Amino acid sequence: AGLGSPRAPRGALTAPAPQDWEQRQEEDTLLIERILLLVRNVLHVPPDPAEEQGVDGDASAHDRVLWALHISGMDDLLKFLASAQVEQQWALHVLEIISLMFRDQSPEELAVLGQGQAAAEHGEDTRELETLRQRELAERRARALQRPSRHSRFGGSYVLQGMKAIGDRDVVFHKGLHNLKSYSHDLGKETRR
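The line above is the sequence of TIM protein; the predicted structure tokens follow.
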């Protein structure tokens, strides 16, 4: 509602036109304060265990409200209000909203949860990289076994029957068979000029 945010938040709570705090009218200031108080009051509702009888691991009403705030872009707006120097007048409202967001969590649980997820993700990434490395090494070994270890430069020797060399022996041809058509006894001799 008239906040001078550098980036428009995603979702329903978009400002019609960003305004600096000097250009805001009294109505805009009251609207911003009312929205922050509404969010604070919604988050302040205590949990009702009798009403929230769900399956273990199911999201509570508080968690669903936090997810709705995230989807609407309100979390980005709160981060902006908390970090902008010109929006210091909303600091206590934002602080109260953030404390209510973490109402059911203890700092130790949050710290362990963050480290546990990071360690689990790191371990999973390490396992994936190791399996990919093993697969690549196996492919290299398979390719190495498929091709011969050395290239043979020896093209073979052939005996040309019916064509006599010096004496009564047949000609022994040391070139590849594709050169046989162009064979002559003068092959390899220097030509005279």
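Note on the example: The beta strands are 158-164, 170-173. Residues 27-45+59-105 form one domain.
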